[in-house]
Design goal:
Layout lengths: L9 E9 L15 E10 L23 E8 L4 E8 L6 E11 L4 E9 L18 H5 L2 E2 L13 E9 L4 E8 L4 E9 L5 E8 L7 E2 L22 E3 L5 E8 L9 E6 L2 E6 L12 E9 L2 E8 L16 E8 L2 E4 L3 E6 L12 E9 L4 E6 L4 E3 L4 E3 L12 E7 L11 E8 L26 E5 L2 H11 L2
Parallel strand pairs: 10-17, 21-28
Antiparallel strand pairs: 1-2, 1-9, 2-5, 3-4, 3-6, 6-8, 7-12, 10-14, 11-13, 11-15, 15-16, 17-18, 19-22, 20-21, 22-26, 23-25, 23-27, 24-26, 27-28
Length: 472
C-alpha cells in the first residue's frame, strides 16, 4: 500500500499596505511617524473527514487551528498588538487588519508572532494576554507536553517572522505555521486470511522529549534526545485484510540512532526501520508507515513527503536475497578433515592481495540494512562491512560491498590455528544469522549451511603455495 505523507501546515499570507501620501509631499522624503496599515490573511485547510487519494484524512480534529493569536512588536520589544481570535470550524481563512501602525520615514522592521491553539501547551494559570509578556522568553519557549497522553491531544502551531514595513509601498510577505512535532500514522494490513494480534509496538530506544515552539533549526540543549518513549496500541486484526491504524506524535531532532519500530507477532520480535539511516523526524511531516502481514513475513512501506518532497520506501522481512561474488577466496585444508577460506596477515603494499575477499549485495528486502560479522576477534574487516537492500531494479553495481578479511596478528605456529566464521544479520532480525550463500556456492566457499563461511589464518609459506598456484 503506498501511503503519501502530507506535510500538514497552515499557510499564512500577509499583505502589508501602506497609507498613500498626500500629493503635496516631496518624493522620497516621508515625514517621521508615517502611518501604515497591515492586513494579514491567515489561511487554513478545511476540516474534512473525506479521505485523500491514498486513503488518509488530511487533518484530524486535534490538528485543526481552533484559535489564533497574533503579536506585533517593534525590534525594541515594545508590543503594539496582541490579539486572539477563535477560528470557526467552517472558516477557511482569517483576515486581520492592524491600522495606525507607525513607522519611521525610512521604514522599520517589525516582529510578527503567530500562535495557534496556545491552550495546547500553556501551563495552568499561564496566559499570553497583554503587552507585558516577555517576547524573548516566548521566542525561546521549549514545550515538553506529551501529545500522545491522552491520545490525539490538541496540537499547537507557531511561526515567527521579521517583516520590514516601508511607508508609501505595498509590502507583502508570507508566513508558514508549523506543528512542533512529526506525525507517525502506523497501519497494519492483514492478508494472512486469519485473525492476527500484534503487541508491544513501539519506537525503539526513545525519542526527544521536547522542542522549541518557534522553529529555528536547532534542538534545545535542555532536551533529552531519547527522553520520551513512544508506544502504540496493540493491534487486533480481523481476517478481512482491512487497514487498522494508530497515530502518534514525536518531537523532532537528531537522535544519533536509526528510528525503528519493534513489534511482536506470533511469538517473534521484529525490528522494522522506518527508512534507511533515518535518525531525525522532521516537524510538520507525516510518516505513513504500513505493515502488511503476508504469510510468515512482514512487508513494510514508509512514505514521507516533507518540504523537499523526499520519499522513502522500505520492504521488510527477516529473509534476505543475497548475491555473493568471489574476488580472492581460496580454500585451505588442514588436519585431513578441515577446510576454510584462507587469509594471511600483512600490512603495507600488496598485503591486501592475500586477504580473503568477497563481494556481497542484498537486493531484497529493499531498504533494510545488513551487517557482516566475524565471530573471532582474532580477525577483522579492512574497510566496509555493512550495506542495505537496493531492490531488484537497481543497477548491477549498486549496493555492492567488498568484504576484506585479515588476521589481526602474525601467524604463530606454536598456537592453535586461528579460525572464524563470517556471517550476516539483517536490521529486521539483528540476533539471527541470515542465509546469504546460494546452495550452488556452498562447496566453493566451504560452507555446510549457507549461513557461515569459515575463515582460517595461514602462514606466509602456506600463503606462497596458495597464491602462487592461483596467480595468472
Amino acid at each position: 500500500m503506498r501511503n503519501i505523507m502530507k506535510s500538514y501546515r497552515i499557510g499564512v499570507c500577509l499583505l502589508l499596505l501602506s497609507v498613500l501620501l498626500p500629493t503635496s509631499c516631496i518624493k522620497d522624503n516621508y515625514p517621521a511617524g508615517e502611518k501604515a496599515s497591515v492586513t494579514m490573511t491567515f489561511t487554513t485547510r478545511v476540516q474534512s473527514d473525506a479521505p485523500s487519494v491514498d486513503g488518509s484524512v488530511p487533518l484530524l480534529d486535534n490538528e485543526q487551528m481552533k484559535t489564533l493569536r497574533v503579536i506585533v512588536a517593534r525590534k525594541s520589544g515594545e508590543i503594539l498588538f496582541n490579539v486572539k481570535y477563535d477560528i470557526d470550524v467552517n472558516e477557511t481563512f482569517k483576515k486581520i487588519t492592524f491600522s495606525e501602525l507607525t513607522t519611521n520615514k525610512n521604514g522599520e522592521k517589525f516582529d510578527f508572532y503567530a500562535i495557534a491553539n496556545e491552550e495546547a501547551f500553556l501551563d495552568a494559570g499561564e496566559s499570553l494576554e497583554g503587552k507585558e509578556i516577555n517576547l524573548t522568553e516566548l521566542k525561546a519557549r521549549v514545550i515538553n507536553k506529551n501529545f500522545n497522553s491522552p491520545a490525539l491531544s490538541q496540537l499547537p502551531q507557531a511561526a515567527y517572522q521579521e517583516i520590514e514595513v516601508k511607508p508609501g509601498e505595498n509590502n507583502e510577505a508570507t508566513m508558514q505555521l508549523l506543528f512542533p512535532v512529526a506525525k507517525i500514522n502506523l497501519s497494519f494490513v492483514n492478508t494472512t486470511g486469519s485473525k492476527q494480534h500484534i503487541s508491544e509496538v513501539k519506537l525503539q530506544n526513545g525519542t526527544p522529549n521536547g522542542a522549541k515552539l518557534f522553529y529555528d533549526g536547532n534542538m534545545p540543549t535542555s532536551v533529552d534526545k531519547t527522553g520520551m518513549n513512544i508506544t502504540f496500541d496493540d493491534f487486533a486484526l480481523n481476517a478481512g485484510g482491512e487497514n487498522t491504524s494508530c497515530v502518534r506524535y514525536v518531537y523532532p531532532g537528531e537522535t544519533d540512532q536509526q528510528y525503528v519500530i519493534t513489534a511482536k507477532w506470533n511469538g517473534k520480535e521484529y525490528t522494522l526501520p522506518l527508512a534507511v539511516d533515518l535518525t531525525n523526524l522532521a516537524r510538520g511531516s507525516q510518516y505513513n508507515v504500513t505493515i502488511t502481514l503476508i504469510g510468515g513475513d512482514l512487508t513494510v512501506s514508509c512514505k514521507v513527503q516533507d518540504w523537499e518532497e523526499t520519499s522513502h520506501e522500505v520492504q521488510l522481512s527477516d529473509k534476505g536475497e543475497f548475491e555473493v561474488g568471489v574476488v580472492n577466496a581460496y580454500p585451505f585444508s588442514w588436519d585431513d578433515d578441515k577446510k576454510a577460506i584462507a587469509t594471511q596477515y600483512g600490512e603495507g603494499a600488496g598485503a591486501a592481495d592475500r586477504y580473503a575477499t568477497l563481494t556481497l549485495r542484498m537486493t531484497t528486502p529493499l531498504g533494510v540494512t545488513w551487517q557482516a560479522h566475524l565471530d573471532n576477534p582474532a580477525f577483522e574487516f579492512v574497510g566496509e562491512s555493512a550495506g542495505v537492500g537496493v531492490g531488484t531494479d537497481a543497477g548491477k553495481e549498486e549496493g555492492v560491498v567488498t568484504l576484506k578479511i585479515r588476521p589481526v596478528n602474525t601467524y604463530d605456529a606454536t598456537q592453535e590455528r586461528r579460525t572464524a566464521n563470517l556471517y550476516v544479520t539483517l536490521g529486521t532480525k539483528p540476533n539471527e544469522h541470515a542465509l546469504f550463500v546460494d546452495h550452488s556456492s556452498w562447496t566453493e566457499l566451504c560452507t555446510s549451511d549457507g549461513v557461515n563461511i569459515p575463515i582460517v589464518q595461514v602462514s606466509s609459506t602456506e600463503g606462497d603455495n596458495i597464491w602462487s598456484q592461483t596467480a595468472p
